[in-house]
Known about the structure:
Layout: H1 2-26, E1 30-35, E2 38-42, H2 44-50, H3 54-57, H4 63-66, H5 72-84, E3 89-97, E4 103-115, E5 118-127, H6 129-144, E6 148-152, E7 158-161, H7 163-169, H8 174-177, H9 189-202, E8 204-213, E9 219-230, E10 236-245, H10 247-292, H11 297-325, E11 333-335, H12 337-351, E12 356-362, E13 369-371, H13 373-389, E14 395-405, E15 420-428, H14 437-440, H15 460-470, E16 474-479, E17 485-492, H16 505-508, E18 517-521, H17 525-537, E19 541-545, H18 548-558, E20 564-568, H19 576-586, E21 591-596, H20 601-610, E22 614-617, H21 622-634
Parallel strand pairs: 12-14, 18-19, 18-20, 20-21, 21-22
Antiparallel strand pairs: 1-2, 1-5, 3-4, 4-5, 6-7, 6-10, 8-9, 9-10, 11-13, 14-15, 15-17, 16-17
Helix pairs in contact: 10-11, 10-15, 12-13, 13-15, 18-19, 19-20
Amino acid sequence: MLKNKSAETTRENVCAEDHCSLFLESSLSGFFIIQNNLFRYVNRTFANMFGYDPHEIIDKLSPIELTAPEDRGLITKLLNYSAKGRFKESERVMHAFRKDGEKLEIVFRVNIVKHRQRRMIIGTTMDRTHIAEEEYRFQRLLSEDIAAYYVTDNHGTISDCNESFLRLFGFPSKMEAVGRPFSSLFPAVSLIDNFLQILREKKCVLNHEAEYVKQDGTRVYVVENAFAEIDLDGNLKTIRGYLLDDTARRKVEGQLYQSQKLENLGTLVGGIGHDFNNLLAIISGHTSVISRAQFDQERFEASVEAIKKATKRGAHVVRQLLTFARKVDLVTESVNTGEIVDEIVTLCRETFSEKITFSIEIQKGLPTIHADPNQLHQVLLNLCVNARDAMPAGGTINISVSRISQNALNDDFDDVESQEYIQIKVTDTGVGMGMDNETMSHIFEPFFTTKKHGQGTGLGLSVVYGIIKSHHGFIGVKSKPHQGTTFSIYLPIPLQRIEVTDVSPEILETIGGSGETILVVEDEAQIRDFVENTLRYSGYNVLSSSDGLEAAEVFARHESDIDLVLLDMGLPKMSGAELLSILKRLAPDLKVIAASGYLEPELKAEIFDQGAIDFLPKPYMASELLKRISRALTQQIE
């Protein structure tokens, strides 16, 4: 029995040794045993690392013979210490040579053990040579990559970037970029807040269209992928991002916008001409009624109210024409989507055929969004024009506005980032029209159109798509042949909402002054008389001028008395911008409200840079004039 048990134990030991040998030989790390300064065992990985066969090393080579001269002293110390048992576990980076002379960078991890009263060194090796080469290639790829790469630290400052990042933002050197607050590259605080909020929630943003500011102040548009590292407290530790310059594409997209605006204008010209003649007829007719109805209070007030409404309609049409005709950048502000829909429907009702009717449903209590109202006007007008064209025999355009949750969109769209969206649906009842799946797969492509030759450029829906994407929104379409079409637009509701409170004209008209002196600079005599009478009636003292030179002289005589200047920008003899510059040099704290029927965006930005406190677009009602002046007089200039 004892003999059999001994044999069984021997077999178990042999089996264990076989398993151990198999494990060592299949290891990806080099393994070795050193005793009496010679290698007593090396595995295949170790031998291959140095370019030998195992039998060329075992019992023949010392570790000193494989070590580079600069590190042989360190190996000698390790061998001496191991012989005396003075160290336990140790890890060192050393340089060694392969059999063919190639120099290696090796990580040695060694320990001393006792076996049968004899000390030996066992250890592992890892070749860092190729890892270092891979790191070098990665760093070179990173520096030469067309993608702008950046890293920020836990303080929100740029800690690393590549050459493409420096070129993209106009930094002369890496030294100029590193250490700068990453937030300084954003054009608005709200944009960096929204960006960081998304990173905290999702830890990444993918294919995100963003706008940044270069060092010279110009805007740059990018497609961004960013990844965040979050600590246990939910704070951002680092952000790693990759930016692709998208400015050129956005420029081409802007040209498409302009082309589509011209197409939209051509669609509306006939109806607008007819509508303006109607407005002039209303104003002219009621003016004659007023002259005959001086003692008929009811008819007099009715005619005055009709003229007011006609004037508002005319101003609205002009404002829409400017919206579609001028070249504007994306300028976001707090927008009430319900009001945008109402404005577009009013315009379309005035210009579309009477065979086209509208059905509007706007959910109550909708929050405002950050958007460019000019571009949203263009989107909705384009969709309404398309709906009209889909119903040549007439029909109804249904428009609804409501809010929708993120979860309801996740199945239809990727990268749904905001928690809630405003949904705008435009549906036509074009029973004879509609689109099949093949057509719908192409409708957002530039120059693709379902209209007959000469009836459309095929730019409309591609422009709509670009505008919605630039607002970080989504657009979907549902259609079937002979069943009509529904376009659905989804625009994100910002985390920090800005609610707009409307004030009734009756309340505004009670706003008055307390003897403050207003200098009115206006070359149009009838407008000047209207403003003077309104201000005097409301408790203000008024000085007036009809051109820039006269205004400068009046200001020089009454500078100490003047509390505010209402300045028209289109003046004879001296432009409003030139006069504004002179007035602000003479009196830096002077409050100036600029007024104009239309200003190019660049000039509008310039007058604010020069110190204008507000801009009043023409035409304006007395209530709006009084509101702006009252607000400006109580506003503190920083």
